[in-house]
Amino acid sequence: MAGELLLSVKDLEVRFRTEDGIVQAVNGVSFDIRRGQVFAVVGESGSGKSVTAMSILGLLPKPPADVTGGRVLWRGEDLLQATPDRLREVRGGEIAMIFQDPLTALNPVHTVGRQVGEMVMVHRGMNKKQARQHAIEMLELVGIPQPDKRVDMHPHEFSGGMRQRVMIAMAIACKPQLLIADEPTTALDVTVQAQVLEVLLGIKDEIDSAIMLITHDLGVVAGMADEVMVMYAGRQAERGTVDQIFYRCAHPYTVGLMESLPRLDSPDDELKPIGGQPPSLITLPSGCAFHPRCRYADLQGRCVSTVPDLAEVDGSGMHRSACFFAEELIAGELEVRR
Ligand code: SF4
Pick from 197, 225, 253: which residue ends a domain? Predict the structure, then answer.
């Protein structure tokens, strides 16, 4: 059964003012996240996925960023209208973020115990002794051996994977209801990646929260997510359950992301990166923003003249695609035009 609706983002629009012009970083993005769910946001860098996450928590510097439209409803409360004090309360306490690079996010001069404990001193009013004990429990929860000793160590004394676990311990210290993990394993090798993702999943169940997982890697999504939103050039290209995205893929960009994944059954096959570059967000291509890179594009027709809406592709109400030819693509009947 679907869990409680925690986050509902509606028609979010974010721009940046730059010397070269207005960058439309996020353009009409909507999605819901429910308790218990792992919601993945996938796309190349510059697709708008991190900007979407940072707008939820009011973390974008204004200027140059400007949220020009939409709503971010956190359990019914619009965070775009929240006061700075309320946003501070939400950050860390109710919604926490795990960043890609623990070395820049952790403070090198303080022990990990102090950094994990600080969260509960600020948000839960614990004293130093209680906070230290809580930090030990959190380090244990994320699988750090000998947590009562490691609590007094500094970040440089931990390996990359262990530092990422410390980041997770910090993020979960206040038992937030939503964890936003932005490329949480990109800097780690594959084995450690799998361990850290497993820790994240275990924690989600343990504290009964939800995870918004931001990644460029569809491989990470396969083993972990319930629902997936694929972003391209600030818009949603496709959204659906993990099975729909992997087995009934309905957007050529998602096909490209899949083809660029290494194959476990034939690891020696050459990877096929998506040809071309993501477009400039200052001057988007006309029509479908993916058309200059799309091998199915109808260059004499709608693909270059009209922006496709994110439309339902089957009766499930879950699977949506912003491609004019989604049905044909699913049916394997879409002609490669170039
Ligand atoms: Fe390709 Fe056209 Fe579909 Fe865009 S709308 S993804 S250009 S086929």
Answer: 225
- Find the 68 Cα to ligand 1 centroid distance in Å: 27
Inter-residue contact 211 to 200 (CB < 8 Å) = yes
Q: Which of 238, 300, 325, 330 to mutate to test the pocket of ligand 1 (most atoms within 8 A of CB)?
A: 325
Residues 267 and 215 in one domain: no
Do 137 and 14 have their domain in common? yes
pLDDT digits (tens, 9 = 90+) for 269-279: 666 788 888 99
Among protein residues, the one whose CA lies closest to atom 8 of ligand 1: 297
DSSP per-residue string spanning 90-144: HHHHTEEEE-S-HHHHS-TTS-HHHHHHHHHHHHH---HHHHHHHHHHHHHHTT-
User: Model confidence at 331, in pLDDT bands (50, 70, 90)?
Assistant: very high
290 lines ligand 1 (CB under 6 A): yes
Beta bridge partners of 10: 71
> pTM of the prediction?
0.92
Atom of ligand 1 nearest to the CA of 237: 6
Distance CA(157)–CA(166), nearest Å, equals: 12
**250 contacts 321 by C-beta, under 8 angstroms:** yes
- Domain of 277, in residue numbers: 230-331
Distance 29 CA to ligand 1 centre (A): 19
Q: Give the separation between CA 313 and CA 310, rounded to whole angstroms.
A: 9
**Total domains, the chain:** 2
CATH of the domain at 130: 3.40.50.300
337 within domain boundaries = no
For the Cβ of 131 lying below 6 angstroms from any atom of ligand 1, the answer is no
CA 141 to chain CA centroid, Å, is 23
Q: Which atom of ligand 1 is nearest to the CA of 253?
A: 6
Q: 13 CA to middle of ligand 1, Å?
A: 22
Q: Cβ(326)–Cβ(285) under 8 Å?
A: no
